[in-house]
Amino acid sequence: MKSFEYGDREVGTYEVFASVANMVIGFGVLTLPRSIVETTSSVDGWISIFIGGLGAMLFTWIVAKLVARFPKRNLHDIAGAVIGKPLAYLFTVLFAGYMMTFVAYETRGVASISRLYLFDRTPVEVICLVFLLVLIYAVAGPSVTLFRLNTLFLPIVILLLFVLFLMNISFFEFDQLMPFFVTDWQDLVLASKESVFSFIGFEILLFYNTIINQPKKIAKASMLGMLIPLVVYLLVFFFTIGVFGPEVTGNVLYPTAELAKQVEVPGGFFERFESIFFSVWVLTLFNTAAMAFDVSLLALESVFKKAKRTTLAFWLAPFVFLIVMQPQNLIEIELFGEWISYAGIGLGMVFPAILLLLAIMRGVKGRA
Amino acid sequence: MRRACRGWLIVLSLAVFTTGCWDRVEIEERGFVVGAGIDLSHEEEAEKGQFTLTFQFVIPAGLQSKDGGGKNGSTNAAFFNLSSSASTMFAAARNMSYMTSRSPYLQHLRIILISQDLAASGELATTLDLFLRDHEMRRATKIMVTEGEARNLLDMHPKNEKLPVMYFESASLNPTKSSRIYPPTNIGDVQAYILSKSSFVLPKMRKRNEEVVVSGAALFDGSQKLKGFLNDDETSGLNILRGTAQDGVLEFRLNGHFMAYEIKGLRRTIQADVSNPERIRFNLQLDMEGNIGETQEPIELLDPGQLAEIEERIAKQLIQLTSRTLQKVQQEYGVDVLGLKEFLARNHHGVWESIKDDWEQGDQLFTRSEISVDVRTKVRIVGSTLETN
Predict the structure, then answer these.
(1) Among A60, A104, B41, B333, which lies 20 to 30 A Cα-Cα from B376?
(2) What is the pTM of this model?
(3) CATH class of A13-107+134-360
(4) Do B22 and A262 touch (CB under 8 A)?
(5) Which residues contact A159 (CB under 8 A, 6 or more apart)?
(6) pLDDT for B295-347, tens place per residue?
(7) Are residues A179 and B139, on separate chains, in Cβ contact within 8 Å?
């Protein structure tokens, strides 16, 4: 038995559950209702979200099975055992790069939203810089700390979302949800692609496997963790449609943020509910970005064995900052997000699936 | 020495990084805007732009004084208005920064008044863009149409409230007491109507002597152009047809004497026969319940036969009230503000997809559809006394 809980540098199932949930909920939740409504009509988009969620959960299961086969090994070791060293190097570096751009994307997301709703005159560069500095601080320590932070933040985030829904109940019109099932199945499938984008993030398991202490339970914990974003996305979607109707949802830039702005409570303080909403929402974005940064460092560490963690972090930061500043406007940011999502599908879904298939076929297994 | 250096470095960086905020605006420097009015410009202003925007600013000190700004207006008024003309609302709002020491701050905007002339010019959607786009704006801001100029109404000095805007707002929330007031419509709803090109209704306000009356309704068609107004009774009829009249009073005559029926609940169910899309037949079933509020007729209220007669009278009165509204919205203006369109889209989606372009425009199937109204009324409570005369 352990001498005292949390004294070891390992994480249990609850931490895995909370981290997967927090990692997946990110920038996407703000725009998801709009991007879904653009291709589907009425409220049918929920089917797309559902399909997307189920698909993502399938791949989560694949990733979990893969890492459970090689306990305490990260992607670099697994790939090395299955497809050989040179390819393993290549894919690990690619993965690190993907995670770095992911950090950049989330950072830019925080900055543009804060610029739009909170700080009118603060330059985006400054917001990004401050956010990045805090990220470096977060990843300077061991990864376990980030997991602990997730277990702390997740209940706050969920609570806040429920308060948001509760406060919007009076604006909710059930009539807006009608009619059901009027969208073409082709459009539904097309829209589910959008929703898969919002479910990316579970691939962090590929590297955090080294500190997870119960490999057998990863699959269950991470699938439950995926269930949280699925439920949250469905609720957010139903509420935005029920409150705004499909036409307005399709024409509002950040429907979920508008939902927060809509809240009206007599008494004045809660009328500015959006400021609370944004503060808490930045928490999840911070977690997402910090974990992505951390994974990217872990990936590089496994390639460059001698490098020191903090040195790597400081060396990477300027590059991330440069990537952050590349998109010039909203359209480019969205395009940037789309590329990253494709990269995520390739590296976080297809690649592990192939690895698992090969591992099973060749009978390669890792030892604990 | 090194330690001292490091200490100084920390102190310096703290001083640099933790002080102040880029976007700080002191609360005393903000001019809180609670209401806005949008008019078409007069001739002399027209060279600056076609729209005139009026903001109502709050004077916080005036809110605290005991006797308020109501009576003489000049001494401790709680508000002041500024108007500015421009071609865009944004420029007009910015222009106001030149006229006041406190720059306009719109997070607390409660109400937007649209003048009748502006509404008739069909520029409603153009002028509302800023109020939907700017991040300071809230989607719950209410919108009303004014008879005459909006800025004149903002200049009122209501007797029981310190701010005209607060007065309008509480008056507009009175549909709970009267079916003659159209329920408040906010800017978010209006955006939905504009985007779906639906016709819609906004509550109307007008100035009568020195008072402001919130009653009646303004009808807009799918291109956001003002089509016409409904008077008090017709608005009441519209509220009943839409099923939104949950409260209100209905006067009717029985044996030559007046009685008042207090509406306490209303449920509307629609049925549609779409077998012939060229001529859809709707049946609106209204189930209303309420109390006897007043009777000037000596009548045995515990007699089931008498009650049935009263209920029948009320039903007749309702049919009369609603048929006038129906005639006006369907035949005269041809705007479907009854929610029939939404009903078709939700319950007969296939048919709706094929006829939606010919509903109000084109073949005007709405005007040609057949709408019948059935009323069932119930008297629940007759009051605490049986006979008084």
Answers:
(1) B333
(2) 0.84
(3) mainly alpha
(4) no
(5) none
(6) 887 777 778 888 888 888 888 888 888 888 888 888 888 888 888 888 888 88
(7) no
